[in-house]
C-alpha cells in the first residue's frame, strides 16, 4: 500500500464516511456534527478508513473507527486511532472513552481498559452514542491521556 496520509474529513466526504460506517455496521447518526474532529485515510479519492472524536470538556468519545473490508489488517485502524489520541491530547482531553461490541481486543492493544458504564463521565454518557446508538451489550472502555 502506498504511504497513507491522515487528513481531516471534508463536508464532501460525508457520503463516503457514512457508507464506510454502514459497511462496518456502525451508527451514522451524528457523523455530520463530528466533522470538525473526523479523520480519514484516502487511497486516491476513496476513503478507506475513518475515526472521530467528540469532545465533552476534559473527556472525549472516540467513535466511528472504521476501515474498508478490503484494507483491514494493514494497521489503518491503529494509525487512525493513534491520530485521534494525538488530537485528543491537543484538545487537552484527559479521559477518552469508547463503546464497542466487537473490537475490545483491538483497543486494549492501544492502551484502552474496560470500564463500568457508571464510571463514564456524565457528559459522555449523555452523548448520542452512549444514550441511544450503541446496544446495551456494548463494552465501555477508557484511556487516560497525559
Provide the fold topology:
Blueprint lengths: L5 E3 L5 H10 L7 H4 L3 E6 L2 E11 L2 E9 L8 H15 L4 E6 L3 H6 L3 E2 L7 H4 L2 H6 L5 E6 L2
Parallel strand pairs: 4-5
Antiparallel strand pairs: 1-2, 2-3, 3-4, 5-7, 6-7
Question: Can you describe this structure?
Answer:
The chain is an alpha+beta fold and 146 residues long. It has helices at 14-23, 31-34, 76-90, 104-109, 122-125, 128-133; strands at residues 6-8, 38-43, 46-56, 59-67, 95-100, 113-114, 139-144. It is built from six helices and seven strands; from the N terminus they run βααβββαβαβααβ. It has a seven-stranded mixed β-sheet. A hairpin with a 2-residue loop joins β3 and β4 (59-67). The longest helix has 15 residues, at 76-90.
Tally of individual helices: 6
- Termini separation comes to 32 Å
- Mean pLDDT across all residues, rounded? 92
Oligomeric state of this protein: single chain
| Beta-strand content bin | 25-35%
The total beta strand count reads: 7
The largest sheet, given as strand count, sense and whether it forms a barrel, is:
7 strands, mixed
Describe this protein with a few key phrases:
single chain, about 150 residues, alpha+beta
Structure, briefly:
31% of the residues lie in helices and 29% in strands.
